[in-house]
Amino acid sequence: MSIVIATLRRELLIAFRSPGDMINPLMFFVIAVTLFPLGVGSDKAFLSEIASGVIWVTALLAVMLSMDSLFRSDYEDGSLEQLLLSPQPIYFIILAKVAGHWLISGLPLVILAPVLASMLALPQQSLLPLLAGLMLGTPILTLLGAIGMALTVGLSRSGLLLAVLILPLYIPVLVFGTGLVDSAQGGMGISGLLALLGAMLVLAVCLAPLAIVAALRISVN
Amino acid sequence: MLGVKDLYCERDDRVLFRNLGFETAAGDIWQIQGSNGSGKTTLLRILCGLNDEYQGEIHWNGQALHKVRADFHRQLFYLGHAPAINKTLTPRENLRWFCASRGLDKTDEIKQALNSFKLYGYDDLPCYQLSAGQQRRVSLARLKLSAAPLWIVDEPFTALDKAGVAELEAFLESHADNGGTVILTTHHSLNMKSPVKTIDLDALATQVAA
User: Fold this and answer.
1) Cβ–Cβ below 8 Å for B78 and A85
2) A25 to chain B nearest CA, in Å?
3) Cross-chain Cβ contact B102/A83 below 8 Å
4) Residue-level pLDDT at B195
5) DSSP string, A101-158
6) Which residues share a beta bridge with B15?
7) What are the domain boundaries of chain A?
């Protein structure tokens, strides 16, 4: 499993050497959420009602914006070809690459979310469901985004195409993620929805790398 | 080793080659020749399994390539047009990941490999600070670490200085002398003692036209 550690290490090193790729989606997340109270007014009751939806949608867009740095430079400098020709199990290399990408793009979103939640006056009892949902949901978003990115990495201007391809796939995660917070606010149990999100994550971890590898093979062809 | 039979490839309605066949053996050096756009890189990528838009058969040790892909990739070292070097990483970090991706436990030999390609003292500088020729040397230093018998290298002499070209020629030759196989493309006329077999894609294209 040394290839998994080596790949994770490489991804994190690259991210810390070019922090712009890491910080820009985070700044987008903070700024976009901040725009909502300015746009819809600072009525606390109304804000607390839309808070979870705003945070989820913005997090989803931030994850999508961060995808570009996942395969772009590897495609351009030829590392992607080397990766596809590696005799090591490519499934685990890709999984490590995506995991590394989540650590620098998804996890910081989860960490920042409580600050933004308090800014939008999200009720205290909804905070934990929101974070649990994001913790399970953002890796799914990253894995699905990686499939879209792998398909479009060979195209020169793939930004909008990527959005068209993967945003529909993000809908279930968004529905269950915000549903989790609504159930908690309504005083209902959240374990069922959490289990569903968890099952989706397991499914994505198992299947998405296969789709990513197939898409990458098409892209370098 | 690698055998090719009746290979046919067209790109944008233009036939690149037809009825292409050859069989490499241990100790061979093959040079693919042809003008710009004649399909040299396409041929190399087909041989590696990166491009599957072709008809014909490719065999590895007598078995169809797609059936023995994992074994083939273990025995193959490919270096494409692009140097496959991440510019924000240092030469050492780049080579360390290469070793891991090939399953090689050679961390101690990385420094030696870099030194033999005249990169002494550059191990820990990010690659974007190196010149184009030095980046090419980082890329080539992988040849030293690779344990694969089959080397497929696309324009390896690009950006190298005269001494570097001569050293690389000698190094490729020594790989063939040790029982390895080299398939390369280059526009530069090779200066090697051992016989170099050639495939001329321009000549093949004239046959197609006739």
Assistant:
1) yes
2) 20
3) no
4) 84
5) HHHHHHHHHHHHHHHHHHHTT--HHHHHHHHHHHHHHHHHHHHHHHHHHHHHTTSSS-
6) B10
7) 2-220
Residue type, B122: Y
**Cβ-Cβ contacts under 8 Å, B143 against chain A:** none
Give pLDDT, residue B210. 62
Is beta strand B150-154 parallel, antiparallel or unpaired with respect to B2-11?
Answer: unpaired
Please give the structure tokens belonging to residue A176: 């269950």
CB atoms closer than 10 angstroms to residue A104: 21
Q: How many CB pairs under 8 A join A and B?
A: 80
The helix/strand/coil state of B46 is: helix
Q: What residues of A are in contact with residue B87 (Cβ under 8 Å)?
A: 77
From residue B160, alpha-carbon distances to A143, A220, B47, B48, B114 in Å are 40, 26, 25, 24, 15
Looking at residue B28, its amino acid is: D
What pLDDT, in 10s, does the model give residues B26-45?
999 999 998 888 889 999 99
Kindly state the tokens that stand for B172.
Answer: 């490729």
Q: Tell me the chain B residues in contact with residue A220 when contact means C-beta distances shorter than 8 Å.
A: 50
pTM (2 decimals)?
0.92
ipTM of this model? 0.89
DSSP-assigned letter for residue B174: H
Nearest chain A Cα distance for residue B8, angstroms? 16
Q: What confidence score (pLDDT) does residue B38 get?
A: 87
Among A14, A111, A13, A95, smallest CA distance to A62 is for A111
- Does domain B2-209 fall under CATH 3.40.50.300? My reply is yes
Residues (pLDDT < 70) of chain B are 208-210
Alpha-carbon distance of A8 to A13, in angstroms, equals 9
Q: Which of A220, A216, A219 is nearest to A91 (CA)?
A: A216
Chain B residues within an 8 Å CB radius of A77:
82-87
Q: Do B48 and A85 touch (CB under 8 A)?
A: yes
Which tokens is A156 given? Answer: 């020169």
Write the pLDDT tens digit of every residue in A33-62. Answer: 999 999 998 888 999 999 999 999 999 999
